[in-house]
Amino acid sequence: MVKDIMSKALPTETKGVRVLFGEFVNIDYLYSYLGTIIYAESGMQNIFILENKFWGRMLFINNNLQFTSRDEFIYHESLVHIPVQSTPEGSIKKVLICGGGDYGAARELLKYPEIEEVVIVDIDPKIPKLVEEYFPELLPEDPKDPRLKLIVEDAFVMVQKYLDEGKAFDLVIIDSTDPDISDTGITQELSHALFGVKFHQMLYELCPKGVVVQQCGTPFTMKNIFTETYKTFINVYPAKEVFCYRSNVPSFGSDNAFIMRCPYPNPEIPKWKELPNVYFYSHEIHRSAFGLPKFWREALAV
Amino acid sequence: MVKDIMSKALPTETKGVRVLFGEFVNIDYLYSYLGTIIYAESGMQNIFILENKFWGRMLFINNNLQFTSRDEFIYHESLVHIPVQSTPEGSIKKVLICGGGDYGAARELLKYPEIEEVVIVDIDPKIPKLVEEYFPELLPEDPKDPRLKLIVEDAFVMVQKYLDEGKAFDLVIIDSTDPDISDTGITQELSHALFGVKFHQMLYELCPKGVVVQQCGTPFTMKNIFTETYKTFINVYPAKEVFCYRSNVPSFGSDNAFIMRCPYPNPEIPKWKELPNVYFYSHEIHRSAFGLPKFWREALAV
């Protein structure tokens, strides 16, 4: 199936506040979007939705772009299909998504009939509601899929609860905002705890023989997040089971990094014969995703 | 060797015109740079140099970014080392660069002692002069390297002259601005002729058993340039010798495409044991570069 996401303008709304919005990528460097703000709210997190002729609708949390209508599929397919297909076919039955209240990762997981349970645990109740209203394409093919459960809760608290109950998962996906690890270690993002050693020790217990994958930003502009997340992983999991892969999500500017604990051998070789209906992912791109630039390798030599 | 290009601010000048410059990537979508214009001229091409805290110095031609101090090495290493290392060790002795007046590609080529001759043919005499003054790091390690020749001439004219003289090359690199192939086929870029069938027919004659590689923009935002360049290649060269690879140059926003004619088998396997002093390129990244997203493959199914 062909999805025409390249080079053409998308339809836009006419209501709302017309702005030139600048997203700071780094000091003195911004991505700028002419567009219309069709939703804005300052709550637990500052959220707004911008409509732009090129990107379609764009969701921002705390002034940082989370995804766009045009290229969210690249991010979500990379986050889900690479870890799933790294395992022997049929290994993944129960999946926990920490964050991911936008449903995008769940949509991809539910494409596999072999997957029996998908739980989203997101701290912010607004995200799923906004997606239902403004980004219906992120919902699973069957939005009432009985395999899907959405829990509004701090993932840290929920994981502890699952541990107390003796529950286990085959795959844990951490799909959160970037943790804003600055040079001085100061952070204001809600997601910060999801990048730490304590949280991963709990996940290791919750998912002792399974896969854990975490999005960790764009290393070229966020080197600290990349190295700190990797350090957390090798601190908690056996170092030889820790891998890094990358994906180019155009609206993120430079390659996004994903750190993964995978106890199965050779995750760079896709293992499922079955390929769901996808637009970015292929076995070709799977193999390619594990090849890293020399300066990424150097940043991981910690 | 480690090059610290990630996450830190670069030193800047204080003289010049302070601006917020917006580079249009697409309709209603811009990259914006706060910076100082330290050089500007409207000549054969409109050229200016912006100094920005994050990117360092940035060269713009006709308002389009050509390269930055911070990440030009990724572009130039991808443009040079992938084609060179796709061939059996020692196959490349004589190289023609069409465009490339910034010396970056030549700098990379001259790292190989096996390469005997590198000719740059650039139409614009200003580019080499500006690089010598403002981007000395793009010059070859030995700027007086006797293997290097710079010719200010239209590459189209020069290639015809070489054909008349019976000269031959082992590798031709087309390192030009994007050709601005719009939906309606209108173009104003000097580089336009370098993307056409006539030019490649001449190159095929000039380099009958060698490699020809052409940078062809970022397909996510310039789908037409990607498909048109590929069509030119399969029109002129044997289709089974035409390959595509990609590289993520962060200042370009999304993955850049390179189309290559390579008559040697399996170009995705690097063949040289020797690895010059590089910061991005590795055999790992070489193999990975040939894995393309599903939607790129679909855009190439022409």
Features:
homodimer; alpha/beta; Rossmann fold; 2 domains; seven-stranded mixed sheet; globular; polyamine biosynthesis (chains A, B); EC 2.5.1.16 (chains A, B); transferase (chains A, B); spermidine biosynthesis (chains A, B)
What's the SSE pattern of chain A?
EEEEEHEHEHEHEHEHEEHH
| Helix/strand class of chain A | alpha/beta
Strand content bin of chain A: 25-35%
Q: How many alpha or pi helices of chain A? A: 8
Total beta strand runs of chain A: 12
Counting structural domains of chain A, the number is 2
Q: In which order are the strands of the major sheet of chain A placed? A: 8-7-6-9-10-12-11
| Largest β sheet strand count, sense and barrel closure of chain A | 7 strands, mixed
The CATH topology of the largest domain in chain A: Rossmann fold
The name of the CATH superfamily of the largest domain in chain A reads Vaccinia Virus protein VP39
Helix content of chain A: 25-40%
What's the overall geometry of chain A?
globular
